[in-house]
């Protein structure tokens, strides 16, 4: 029977240690300049502990923050790498990544702003927004489920035009998902493991309503979706979809980080078309079955988070260390 423990309680009793592999399974390009405990040898050796304490405090006040931070990190890494470009605001007519339609429902930016402000007070100009986001996405779960190599620097560019063609869509079929992940040097194992993040959080009706009401343009329903579950969703999300309405991505388990997502996936209750797509390929379907076991899932999810966190990072003298995550620094 699925555990009903809350997110923080569940993660506090998981016996697995942090994953220390920094580029497992080939990893992702650009991660070579990162290393564990990068800030230990800087003028801010307490950086990671400070981010952890601030993040945990915020999640205790708002448990919905954990999936939000994880999603922001994911959206950041898939568009030109884990460089905090997703955090930049639009300036004038130069629309940033935030304004792209898939990013308009993201949340948690204020939490990152506050964490950055507190870190800047303690250590001005040392810790990047990209590292704060990567650390907070992990720390929101209450313990080190994976190790976060640090040393990222922040991009000075964020363009709405970079989002399309880089960010995997909830409407994607398996070949498209596989292609998108391969572009980031991530494999099918990473695809399935990272999809397990759908075990927490909520989704807006527009991300899946086509499966309920007009799957092939003929007023039909997606046959790969459990009919009873589909009727429940129709009651929550009548047509046309209300952009403000949300539903749990993992029914009755949206605040528990567990393997329930993979269980319901095999019951044809994956919310997105991209979830159902994981069962259309023999290799990915086998991984879905394997990740129903908690030990397998937590290990593989952690390893894939490390791989994703290495995607196209800026290190060394590239980019900058922003003072404010929403705006680039003035040129000297």
From TrEMBL:
Protein name, as recorded: Peroxidase
Function: Removal of H(2)O(2), oxidation of toxic reductants, biosynthesis and degradation of lignin, suberization, auxin catabolism, response to environmental stresses such as wounding, pathogen attack and oxidative stress.
Domain Plant heme peroxidase family profile: 33-329
Signal sequence residues: 1-24
PANTHER family, sorted: PEROXIDASE 25-RELATED (PTHR31235)
Highest rank taxon of the organism: Eukaryota
Subcellular location per the Swiss-Prot or TrEMBL entry: Secreted
EC number: 1.11.1.7
PROSITE patterns listed in its UniProt record: PEROXIDASE_1 (PS00435), PEROXIDASE_4 (PS50873)
InterPro entries assigned: Haem_peroxidase, Haem_peroxidase_sf, Peroxidase_pln, Peroxidases_heam-ligand_BS, Secretory_peroxidase
Family: Belongs to the peroxidase family. Classical plant (class III) peroxidase subfamily.
Coiled coil regions in record: none
Lineage: Eukaryota, Viridiplantae, Streptophyta, Embryophyta, Tracheophyta
Keyword list, A-Z: Calcium, Disulfide bond, Glycoprotein, Heme, Hydrogen peroxide, Iron, Metal-binding, Oxidoreductase, Peroxidase, Secreted, Signal
Cofactor names: heme b; Ca(2+)
